[in-house]
């Protein structure tokens, strides 16, 4: 009876009480962003969902509490500032940024790319990651307790390009440099930064691989994919480390995808 009486005194809304840390996931309206946002929420984070399509962000949030939908264009400084103002107003702090928003250009020879296509990819993949990291760092340096974690989505393309992928590959190589710079500059402020490089997670973006995609030798081949939940689990592991530990770089990929060796 004593044990029952003790348990009866526990707060009724235990779920709400566990949601103390706050996270921001960009590109949260689909694929990897959606899976990671839900995993973070289920692990006890309050999660801000950023992306261009409000309807898809609402789909991610569903009936869950402790999710904040903020339509955002990460390539526009004013939009990013408004996003972080909402987070500060709602949560008071930010413990984790998952810089995930990204897009590609048409798979055409580099000489056929337009300036607008190049600029759009750079704006979202690189400038967007920079703008969000910049605002996150400002908040993390000012909050109490100070500090936080930034995880950048690098992609396998941060190491090895696909044919006809110059804009995407260039930005993902640049993300590696951004990750290293944030890691170095954030040390003094208890801000950790790591990068996850993902290969062939089963999302809408990789559906085309089931039909076959162009390989480096000019052939077309079907590529293996993995469940996106494995990506969410990996990001969650990185996120839940104490700030005195960091996964600097992690690669999670479908075992049989062409990457190691000659394809």
- N-to-C SSE string, H for helix and E for strand: HHEHEHEHEHEHEEEHE
Measured on Cα atoms, how large is the radius of gyration? 19 Å
Which topology does CATH recognise? Rossmann fold
How would a crystallographer describe the biggest sheet?
7 strands, parallel
User: Quaternary arrangement of the chains shown?
Assistant: single chain
Question: CATH first level: which class?
Answer: Alpha Beta
Q: What would CATH call the architecture?
A: 3-Layer(aba) Sandwich
Report mean pLDDT, rounded to a whole number. Answer: 90
Describe this structure in words.
By secondary structure, the protein is of the alpha/beta class. 41% of the residues lie in helices and 17% in strands. The protein contains eight helices and nine strands. The protein has helices spanning 2-8, 14-18, 31-42, 54-61, 77-91, 115-142, 166-186, 228-240, and strands at residues 21-26, 45-51, 67-71, 96-99, 148-153, 191-199, 213-214, 220-221, 249-253.
Q: What's the gist of this structure?
A:
The protein has 263 residues and is α/β, with parallel strands linked by helices. The protein is built from 8 helices and 9 strands.
Which secondary structure elements does this structure contain, and how are they paired or packed?
Elements: H1 2-8, H2 14-18, E1 21-26, H3 31-42, E2 45-51, H4 54-61, E3 67-71, H5 77-91, E4 96-99, H6 115-142, E5 148-153, H7 166-186, E6 191-199, E7 213-214, E8 220-221, H8 228-240, E9 249-253
Parallel strand pairs: 1-2, 1-4, 2-3, 4-5, 5-6, 6-9
Antiparallel strand pairs: 7-8
Helix pairs in contact: 3-8, 5-6, 6-7
